[in-house]
Automatic annotation (TrEMBL):
GO MF annotation terms: ATP binding; sequence-specific DNA binding
Any one GO CC term of the record: cytoplasm
Gene3D superfamilies xref list: 1.10.8.60, 3.40.50.2300, Homeodomain-like, P-loop containing nucleotide triphosphate hydrolases
Domain Sigma-54 factor interaction intervals: 215-444
Organism superkingdom: Bacteria
Main location: cytoplasm
Protein name, entry field: DNA-binding transcriptional regulator NtrC
Location(s), subcellular: Cytoplasm
Organism of provenance: Psychrobacter piscatorii
Domain annotation Response regulatory: ranges: 31-154
SUPFAM superfamilies named among the record's database cross-references: CheY-like, Homeodomain-like, P-loop containing nucleoside triphosphate hydrolases
Composition bias, Low complexity: 484-501
Keywords associated with the record: Activator, ATP-binding, Cytoplasm, DNA-binding, Nitrogen fixation, Nucleotide-binding, Phosphoprotein, Repressor, Transcription, Transcription regulation, Two-component regulatory system
Polar residues bias locations: 1-11, 201-216
């Protein structure tokens, strides 16, 4: 199976002066031009790449690198001073990395550029690949991965099969300056090439809406998805999107279409599971008048309607076996017959299929054609379940609270950090769709402008891991302790020790969440000065635990807490805790 990480050919513009990068083997290490306006990052990256055997030339801005390349283009600089690979940031003053990459690929089509950005979303991934970038690295990235990517870029250059990584086989890129030196290339910011016009359009879209595809995600897993979309959007190849229900398969299919050359043509989505089996063929391929009872008129199928565009076949695992055979034929030669038809119909349709099922398993059970599976599985794009990327939940929730408010024609509610934390621990079996529904529910049901943890719907409150700890929290909260003074005296210190209550407290960091919920509940009941209530109780718990741990030895307990003995003695008095009797003398 080919991974989506297939390399694109850098673009070239036939009317632009072009410099070809030759890759004659050389004893010199490969040269990397590193462009980033962040001095600290530049230093870290330069050290890393030098350690990896590269010669690194750093630039604080793309404009300076552009000037040197432009001089080479006009044959005013030595071709040997040009880089084997360029690594550039996107957002920089004067000239941005995308304009620079775009220009480089018009004039040095063989020179690989790797684009990195801290503002990584689908738009920047798509824009990067559209400039002809070899690869796109969302920050923060693993330095080893970055080194591997840079060497992959160097080795990708045409006519070059020798890795720079080993010292014995270093090569150097040289420039064959075939360009007409009379032609002065326009600067990337002023160029009117078709190339730049396309990009300008993209930029306009991106200014109007920073996330035109509506796909949100900062997690590494989603960055991988964005990169895949960036690479695959331009290609006509079939894609198989896999993932649990509600992970965004249709959204991704639609993004692949929206960013493809087919975007002006239809995107038609069809859910195989939602159509009765005996109607699927007619739905897909259309029918002639009289083909079956009820076929009173000739009708176009979805394939014809999607001609020139994209057909998204959702839940492909539910497609009947006989229809799979017909689909395979269309995929093979782009031709089919309407149901009851005699004339072959030719279409140009990109197929994107999706499933939440294990197609390999269906093939084993003879429920899915193996040949169709291989045809669809050329490129597979797996979408991660939401519970595997809780870091995406805050941005997704904010987005859904905003859109729910728009739907309800009201102002968006804000999520209290405790509520958000609980949402991040939930397992979201329904994935992003479930989160979207919860946000809609909260917009309607929660009182007040801020959604508290206690406002969350019952399915969340009942099923978060925090639940059991919440119960403990109720028992050990300052409020509960106040109502249960026994726990505050020395006898109970011993009792606690015997019952091992303190040591049985959850070791998980969820105690902070429990504390947040206690705080929220206290505030909800109108309490003030909650820090004054909580702090002594917090100290009491730690002091008790330390004394238990030390078997009542105060010096040891003080040291466990990081206090001096005097402080410990003072706290024991303040908190009215009597130190337990211990056998040892202090
Ligand atoms: N990353 C995301 N950012 C924003 N919205 C998302 C994201 N992922 C999914 N959604 C939203 O979640 C809902 C479900 O997404 P979608 O229908 O694409 O999932 P699916 O995997 O195709 O589901 P199913 O398998 O049930 O058809 C949609 O409203 C979609 O807009």
């Amino acid at each position: 199976m080919t991974q989506y990480s297939d390399n694109q050919n850098p673009k070239s513009d036939a009317h632009s002066p072009i410099v070809t990068v030759n890759n004659a083997p050389s004893d010199q290490p490969a040269t990397l031009w590193l462009i980033d306006d962040d001095a600290a990052l530049r230093m870290v990256l330069a050290d890393t790449f030098e350690d990896a055997g590269l010669t690194v030339i750093s630039f604080t801005q793309a404009q300076a690198a552009w000037t040197r390349l432009n001089d080479a283009l006009k044959q005013q600089a030595s071709a040997t001073q040009l880089p084997d690979v360029i690594l550039t940031d996107i957002r920089m003053p004067m000239m941005d990395g995308l304009s620079f990459s775009d220009w480089v690929h018009q004039h040095f089509p063989d020179m690989p550029i790797v684009i990195m950005t801290a503002h990584s979303d689908l738009t920047s991934a798509i824009n990067s690949y559209q400039t002809g970038a070899f690869e796109y690295l969302p920050k923060p990235f693993d330095l080893d991965d970055a080194v591997a990517t840079i060497y992959k870029a160097i080795n990708y250059q045409p006519n070059m099969a020798i890795a720079h990584y080993s010292n014995e086989s270093d090569t150097q890129t040289t420039i064959d300056a075939r360009a007409d030196s009379d032609i002065t290339p326009e600067t990337p910011t002023s160029t009117h090439s078709k190339h730049s016009k396309n990009k300008a359009e993209v930029t306009t879209t991106s200014k109007a809406n920073s996330n035109p595809s509506g796909i949100i995600g900062q997690s590494q897993a989603m960055q991988t998805v964005f990169r895949a979309i960036g690479r695959l959007a331009q290609s006509p190849i079939s894609v198989l999107i896999t993932g649990e229900s509600g992970t965004g398969k249709e959204l991704v299919a639609s993004a692949l279409h929206q960013h493809s050359p087919r975007k002006q043509q239809p995107f038609i989505a069809l859910n195989m599971a939602a159509i009765p089996h005996d109607l699927i063929e007619s739905e897909l391929f259309g029918h002639e008048k009289g083909a079956f009872t009820g076929a009173t008129t000739t009708r176009q199928g979805r394939f014809e309607q999607a001609n020139g565009g994209t057909l998204f076949l959702d839940e492909i695992g539910d497609m009947p076996f006989s229809t799979q055979t017909r689909l395979l034929r269309v995929l093979a030669n782009g031709e089919f017959y309407r149901v009851g038809g005699q004339q072959p119909i030719q279409v140009d349709v990109r197929i994107i299929a999706a499933t939440h099922q294990n197609l390999e398993e269906l093939v084993k059970q003879n429920r899915f054609r193996e040949d169709l599976f291989y045809r669809l599985n050329v490129i597979r794009l797996p979408l991660p379940p939401l519970r595997k990327r809780p870091e995406d939940i805050p941005a997704l929730a904010t987005y859904f609270m905003q859109s729910a408010a728009e739907q309800m024609n009201t102002t968006p509610k804000h999520l209290h950090p405790a509520a958000l934390q609980m949402m991040q621990t939930f397992d979201w079996r329904g994935n992003v769709r479930q989160l979207e529904n919860v946000c809609l529910w909260l917009t309607v049901m929660a009182t007040g402008d801020t959604v508290m943890a206690t406002d969350l719907p019952p399915e969340l409150l009942e099923n978060t891991p925090l639940d059991s700890e919440l119960d403990q929290e109720h028992d050990s909260s300052p409020q509960a302790n106040a109502e249960n003074p026994q726990l505050q005296n020395n006898d109970d210190l011993n009792n606690q020790s015997q019952n091992n209550q303190v040591t049985q407290a959850p070791a998980s960091p969820n105690w902070q969440k429990a504390l947040a919920i206690w705080a929220e509940q206290s505030l909800n009941t109108g309490e003030t000065d909650i820090l004054q209530t909580a702090t002594p109780e917090f100290e009491r718990v730690l002091l008790t635990a330390a004394l238990n741990h030390s078997g009542g030895k105060k010096i040891e307990a003080a040291s466990l807490l990081g206090w001096g003995r005097n402080t410990l003695t003072r706290k024991l008095q303040q908190l009215d805790i009597s130190a337990p009797r211990v056998p040892s003398k202090e």
